[in-house]
Amino acid sequence: MVHWSGHNSSVILILTKLYDYNLGSITESSLWRSTDYGTTYEKLNDKVGLKTILSYLYVCPTNKRKIMLLTDPEIESSLLISSDEGATYQKYRLNFYIQSLLFHPKQEDWILAYSPDQKLYSSAEFGRRWQLIQEGVVPNRFYWSVMGSNKEPDLVHLEARTVDGHSQYLTCQMQNCTETSRNKPFPGYIDPDSLIVQDDYVFVQLTSGGRPHYYVSYRRNAFAQMKLPKYALPKDMHVISTDENQVFAAVQEWNQNDTYNLYISDTRGVYFTLALENVQSSRGPEGNVMIDLYEVAGIKGMFLANKKIDNQVKTFITYNKGRDWHLLQAPDTDLRGDPVHCLLPYCSLHLHLKVSENPYTSGIIASRDTAPSIIVASGNIGSELSDSDISMFVSSDAGNTWRQIFEEEHSVLYLDQGGVLVAMKHTSLPIRHLWLSFDEGRSWSKYSFTSIPLFVDGVLGEPGEETLIMTVFGHFSHRSEWQLVKVDYKSIFDRRCAEEDYRPWQLHSQGEACIMGAKRIYKKRKSERKCMQGKYAGAMESEPCVCTEADFDCDYGYERHSNGQCLPAFWFNPSSLSKDCSLGQSYLNSTGYRKVVSNNCTDGVREQYTAKPQKCPGKAPRGLRIVTADGKLTAEQGHNVTLVVQLEEMNSVTRKPNVQQSEPVGLNLWCSPASAVDLFQAAAGPSILPRGPEPGDNLVKPSYAWYFPETLAPNNGDVQRTFIQVDFGDGIAVSYVNLSSMEDGIKHVYHNVGIFRVTVQVDNSLGSDSAVLYLHVTCPLEHVHLSLPFVTTKNKEVNATAVLWPSQVGTLTYVWWYGNNTEPLITLEGSISFKFTSEGMNTITVQVSAGNAILQDTKTIAVYEEFRSLRLSFSPNLDDYNPDIPEWRRDISRVIKKSLVAATGILGQHILVAVLPGLPTAAELFVLPYQDPTGENKRSAEDLEQISELLIHKLNLNSVHFELKPGVQVLVHAAHLTAAPLVDLTPSHSGSAMLMLLSVVFVGLAVFVIYKFKRKIPGINVYAQMQNEKEREMVSQVSHPESRPHIPQTELRRPGQLIDEKVESQLIGK
């Protein structure tokens, strides 16, 4: 890392690092300093610490005497500061690691530091003390304020991520960036990694509806959506330049893959017109997009671009910011003096426009502000740009004519303000010669700079390019140390240039002297004079030109045709310009042309082509829409929802609003102009407050809020009164009379869940319009509980119900997975019925979709042909320790089962225990017909009866108990026995007796079923969870264990009767 300290300074600093490829890290570093333009060097390791490993060197851009060194973060986190051009250093420990630094453009001691953990720090003392500004900052998306655009010079612009991963644009002061002091200039979220702060402009991106939308703030005013031609439909955008109050942007449209279109904006950066189509692009080493566009230094408005035409890439040049483009005229002769036969437009000169990212190499194209007419680049002559047969070319008249100077690629360095050009061959081989030109590349002389051939790694010239000293650094072999060669050309000149050594040179474009509305004349050294220039003289004079059609570009919505006229595009309606202003005000009626920004022409056709102010005509409301501020069709119960009214056309004059409602509301009249060219510059008319989009905003058209000043038209009788009525659909409506827009929109709170029909109607004397919005009001779904029996019989219908908390949340979708089904059952109802045809354990899952949230619950149900069920109760002391949560019930169920097995000797596979929610504590004991894995030894109905009797006997003897904690014994009692076989297993009886018995049974069952259905609560089949219960359950407030009817223990019921009994006594859910 080599650095020349600064302008008119003889100090050079060099930082070298030794990288160990075996260890994969830097093992040592050295700092070198020269005070005599690189003639001698001093090693400063003892001044920074002999064991200190340095990783980076920074120089303050506003005071080159201030140097900052960073240590290797893998060893220590420190920085070393020098205020005397690196002669002495002070070391400061850091409690964070620095990944990158950003110096303030004006204040030499103000620095921003970014750490690898995405934290941004600030220092007002050149790194001696640091203060945390913000966490979660996006890399390379933090900026200092721009002088002139921000009133506070210590303002910091940054993009930060929220806890949920969204990105926001924030601003705050470097020493005061608390939650309360931060500002959000752009309302809502932005796309990640999209914030750009450049000169007077701030850019952000927001994707909605699958399309990116771009927004700009000019001079820190409110954001407006950037307006490209209607069907550009951009996929990607890159800001190329923001010079001279204008945005130059490269846009990749929907039908482009490896090319971009160049667009140029008005002063505010809002309205863009096409400058050049299909500019070639490529990918950089890190995957970044590189546009083949080069801005020529020293001449404003001059660009070179490589355009793709029929799969051929050709180089074009413009002198007026893209208004006109031309191919490059090839040289008349080649390097040997032979004529070049190249006829436009079939053959031309093509240049490679990539700029070097290495600060120590010049790249393949170069120009300098201090040498405005000289351009050096590599390229080829032919029908298209090629990567073979590359030569070097130079232009000394700003691209009008070119000369071939080398047949191979060279790096070119500008010395003495372009008075000396130094060329060094691009090669992987060692070299010992370089070339010098003192006449703008017309002739070259060969010089030797080293006696031993050197592998050149880079060349460094003094900042400002005013001297004739350069440093070449490289190595003699791949294993040798660095070698530095100082080259001083001062001895070539014996004097400084005087006035008589210069001649005037007029900038022109193929003979046209008026460029950007002015004639500019520069001073250039005469080619035969060999003197040192010193400081740059600049332009000698500038004279404005008379305006012609060439000084005007097509306005937004207009396209240039073959006859040179700007005519409306097919999608653009010029008459729509008048629709975005209020009656009694004025708007600018475009002529289809707008003067190129920074063009200095005067008079001529200026008046003819300039937009004219006209009175706004009266119009009926049209294009009315009502949307939510976030673009969604849902709102949350009990929370403010902001509704926005959008109008394409309406005229109004503001008076005090007549709001016929007690609660405070606000109305936004968002207008979506198809084209409002230069309306912002109107001398009279409404002020525009562009609305920034909120998260989820899905508006294709840009939206603007129109604020009508508190003034009436000169003739009050000509005023159109506009009436606005909004009905929220819940019995509340509001009305307005000529209400100016309010930033907060219409705020309303819905107190019930449902789908509401929101209507808005706008009327004036010329007509009316209405719009409808169907708004879904929901409340967040917090919990889902799947209710179904623990055990059921084979081939019997089972009801499963999803119980929600809260119970009313709006429109829901239920997805059911059960049995061996590979496809789910999707319903809009929270209950389903199904059967299991085989015995075993089955899992049932329900997923409930509510808006963007999906909650689920899973339960397991046992399926058998027959089983028994016994209700259990416990000694009252258990209730004192029952927190009524699922985890506790699972653990107690396991303890009860263990106690039953110990007291009865019954195999655990026959027993299933589930503690029920609620108080007093109760449980359900299931006796199951377990069979071994071979399928044999399956228990019969008699076996189940014997197991049930044994369990009841032990329970009645108080033989089942367990110790809850030391000193706390809990007894388990039998409440009642339930369940019976599905088929009659008793011996056969006579036919008549059997018929009589069956008749009695059926009559009894009919009476019982009718009685049950009269008592049954419809739609609820809720059971306590089994041992796999995972989530919190809720106890109903309408049914309590105390209200359960007492059933004698000897009463036997079938499984179906058990289910009915549970339905009315086991309600869950608040």
Report on the architecture of this protein.
- By secondary structure, the chain is mostly beta strands.
- The protein contains six helices and 73 strands.
- Strands 50, 52, 53, 54, 55 and 58 form a six-stranded mixed sheet that branches.
- It is extended.
- The C terminus is likely disordered.
- It comes from Eschrichtius robustus.
- Keywords: Glycoprotein, Membrane, Repeat, Signal, Transmembrane, Transmembrane helix.
- This is VPS10 domain-containing receptor SorCS1.
- Belongs to the VPS10-related sortilin family. SORCS subfamily.
- Pfam families: PKD, Sortilin-Vps10, Sortilin_C.
Summarize this structure as a short list of keywords or feature phrases.
1070 residues; mainly beta; six-stranded mixed β-sheet; five-stranded antiparallel β-sheet; 6 helices; disordered C terminus; signal; WD40/YVTN_repeat-like_dom_sf; glycoprotein; VPS10 domain-containing receptor SorCS1
Shape: extended
What is the radius of gyration computed over CA atoms, rounded to a whole number of angstroms? 42 Å
Derived structural class: mainly beta
Mean pLDDT, to the nearest integer, reads 79
Proportion in β-strands: 35-45%
Number of helices: 6
| Number of strand elements | 73
Helix content: under 10%
Spans of at least 5 consecutive residues whose pLDDT stays below 50 are 651-719, 978-998, 1007-1070
- Terminal CA distance reads 70 Å
Major β-sheet profile: 6 strands, mixed
Organism: Eschrichtius robustus (California gray whale)
Membrane topology: Single-pass type I membrane protein
Family: Belongs to the VPS10-related sortilin family. SORCS subfamily.
Subcellular location: Membrane
